[in-house]
């Protein structure tokens, strides 16, 4: 551990999915009037936002390496919330109502947060085919009641037969199909989490998912909507049979049964990870791969191992923030954003003001310029010996002296922050999913899982009921994230926990591909710096800058005020409109009681729910 108390930043070193950024971004001229957010906003919050200073906001400070906030008591996170859900025996929040309820049932039966998280993830494999299938991967950060924090890496790996030529071939084919599919990691990660940190039998945690797959459940409105967007692109006969009714996609409210997936889940319940990575299920995956041009074989599946890693630990304004280390480049970006926000004292600016948003954009610009140089499989890279940039990025002195210096009044062109040609293009899918879980015993879990693109590789293994990820597209053509046999690809997923005085006070995470670190950072600073309740922090407008393209994307439906956008444009930012950013299903905890407050992001729907009581 390397601590730099003078800058109130302590770092321990230790991103998601290839697709296309939405192309319907309309340029916002300085005089435009963005749409007003619709939804269950607090009237008092709306009034405050409307009166927030914009052009009149004073510039923030230039970076002062001698400024410190570590001697000041860390901020307390607000509790309650007009639309937040209170729980006194734990809390689960996810995109899917079945998953949240099943997780809460596990808590109610005396299971811990890890048990509930495992049950939630297996349920999403049944109910959330756009992102939750067993054919994907993910990350989990868990803080246990004893205060220990663990990062579980179950990112997918490439086949032993993977080559750059084969990867370029699948990319030219659209990054879909069996050749785009790596070795899945979800089953390995969930079983490892339960074995190391759970308290209930695996079969008990998988059984609710088996029941939903066998008996069926009503297709949700959100799943039907997303399936409708992609239906004409899903050409694989197996996946069309799985998700269709004749020539039409399954509609909202129609019952959906998955007997082949139920059989796979039963094998996992009975045999653990071996039920997926060996035997009939592994054979079915390998057979489908061989038949359809994929390269993952039974030996690849047998070789897969999830890993428990040391989390990335940063100090922000006296709070401990734990997030995901490499192969996540999202955690590194989050650490960099927080470092720059603290150094510029952005927390002194009014929320949603031009001064704060300018500081955030400039922090994100620099973080995203650097992150791709360090986001890679740590088992393939000896960071300590061969990659000095990682150590520099985790040193506050680097951010304090980084050139060009932060300009409080003007945008810094991305080309002057880092050579644009040195950063490869990467577009990550937004169709990932995140859920958060806490229990009444002091355990907390942030977990993000993905198939990379929506419906992954757009193929289903016929005899296993498993939709495969297309995460092979997350490798870079060269450099630290270049492809190699049995290597993990970089990701932006950033499940995050916030701790105050030794007690967990927030569980944060989001889907959203490249936007994930920015979403997590914005929710975090709304909670820590702006005094928002969890529902306000999640519903607040979000923006995104990822170094390249050199533009700021604001949400179309939840935009900042016209005055703030005009002032950002005056400072030299190119502002565009885009779709919703992320879906942050988050929880805050009362450090002085067992009360928790959860919220399911309305951008994608879902449910926050806690058990009414706990039966030992």
List the helices and strands and how they pair.
Blueprint: E1 2-4, E2 9-11, E3 26-27, H1 43-50, E4 85-87, E5 90-94, H2 97-108, H3 113-127, E6 137-143, E7 149-154, H4 164-172, H5 186-197, H6 202-215, E8 217-218, H7 221-230, H8 237-243, E9 244-245, E10 248-249, E11 255-256, H9 259-271, H10 274-277, H11 279-292, H12 298-303, E12 307-309, E13 312-316, E14 319-323, H13 330-343, H14 354-371, H15 383-386, H16 388-393, H17 396-401, H18 414-417, E15 432-439, E16 444-450, E17 460-461, E18 466-467, E19 496-500, E20 503-508, H19 516-528, H20 534-539, E21 543-544, E22 552-555, H21 562-570, E23 575-578, E24 586-589, E25 596-599, E26 607-609
Parallel strand pairs: 22-23
Antiparallel strand pairs: 1-2, 3-23, 4-25, 5-15, 5-26, 6-7, 6-16, 7-12, 8-11, 9-10, 13-14, 14-19, 15-16, 17-18, 19-20, 20-24, 21-22, 24-25
């Amino acid at each position: 551990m390397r601590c730099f108390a003078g800058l109130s930043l302590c770092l321990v070193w230790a991103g998601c999915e290839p697709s296309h950024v939405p192309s319907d971004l309309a340029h916002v001229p300085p005089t435009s009037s963005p749409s007003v957010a619709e939804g269950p906003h607090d009237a008092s919050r709306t009034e405050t936002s409307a009166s927030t200073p914009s052009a009149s906001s004073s510039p923030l400070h230039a970076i002062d390496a001698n400024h410190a906030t570590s001697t000041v008591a860390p901020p307390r996170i607000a509790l309650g919330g007009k639309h937040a859900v209170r729980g006194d025996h734990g809390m689960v929040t996810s995109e899917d109502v079945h998953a949240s309820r099943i997780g809460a049932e596990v808590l109610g039966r005396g299971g811990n947060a890890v048990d509930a998280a495992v049950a939630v993830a297996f349920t999403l494999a049944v109910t959330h085919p756009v992102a939750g299938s067993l054919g994907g991967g993910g990350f989990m950060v868990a803080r246990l009641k004893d205060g220990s924090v663990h990062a579980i890496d179950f990112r997918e790996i490439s086949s032993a037969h993977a080559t750059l030529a084969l990867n370029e071939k699948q990319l030219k084919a659209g990054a879909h199909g069996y050749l785009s599919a790596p070795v899945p990691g979800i089953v390995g990660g969930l079983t490892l989490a339960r074995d190391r940190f759970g308290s209930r039998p695996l079969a008990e945690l998988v059984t609710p998912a088996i029941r939903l797959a066998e008996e069926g459940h009503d297709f949700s409105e959100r799943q039907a909507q997303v399936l409708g967007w992609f239906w004409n692109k899903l050409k694989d006969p197996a996946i069309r049979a799985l998700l269709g009714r004749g020539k039409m996609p399954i509609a909202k409210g129609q019952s959906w049964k998955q007997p082949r997936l139920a059989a796979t889940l039963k094998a996992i319940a009975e045999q653990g990870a071996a039920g997926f990575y060996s035997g009939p299920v592994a054979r079915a995956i390998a057979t489908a791969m061989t038949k359809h041009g994929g390269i993952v074989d039974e030996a690849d599946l047998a070789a897969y191992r999830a890993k428990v890693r040391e989390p990335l630990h940063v100090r922000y304004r006296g709070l401990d923030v734990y997030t995901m280390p490499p192969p996540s480049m999202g955690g590194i970006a989050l650490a960099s954003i927080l470092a720059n926000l603290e150094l510029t004292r952005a927390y002194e600016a009014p929320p949603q003001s031009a001064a704060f948003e300018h500081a955030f954009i400039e922090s994100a610009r620099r973080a995203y310029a650097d992150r791709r140089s360090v986001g890679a499989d740590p088992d393939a890279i000896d960071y300590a010996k061969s990659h000095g940039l990682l150590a520099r990025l985790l040193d506050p002195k680097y951010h304090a002296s980084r050139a060009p210096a932060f300009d409080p009044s003007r945008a810094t062109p991305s080309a002057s922050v880092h050579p644009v040609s040195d950063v490869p293009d990467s577009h990550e899918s937004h169709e990932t999913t995140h859920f958060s879980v806490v229990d009444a015993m002091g355990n907390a879990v942030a977990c993000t899982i993905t198939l990379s693109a929506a419906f992954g590789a757009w193929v289903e293994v016929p005899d296993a009921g498993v939709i495969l990820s297309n995460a092979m597209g997350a490798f870079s053509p060269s450099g630290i994230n270049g492809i190699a046999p049995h290597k993990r690809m970089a990701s932006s997923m950033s499940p995050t926990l916030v701790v105050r005085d030794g007690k967990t006070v927030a569980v944060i995470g989001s889907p959203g591909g490249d936007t994930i670190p920015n979403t997590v950072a914005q929710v975090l600073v709304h909670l820590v710096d702006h005094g928002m309740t969890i529902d306000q922090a999640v519903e607040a407008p979000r923006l995104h800058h990822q170094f390249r393209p050199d533009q700021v994307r604001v949400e179309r439906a939840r935009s900042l005020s016209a005055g703030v956008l005009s002032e950002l444009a005056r400072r030299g930012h190119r502002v565009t409109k885009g779709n919703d950013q992320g879906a942050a299903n988050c929880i805050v905890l009362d450090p002085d009681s067992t009360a928790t407050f959860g919220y399911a992001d309305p951008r994608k729907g879902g449910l926050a729910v806690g058990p009414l009581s706990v039966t030992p």
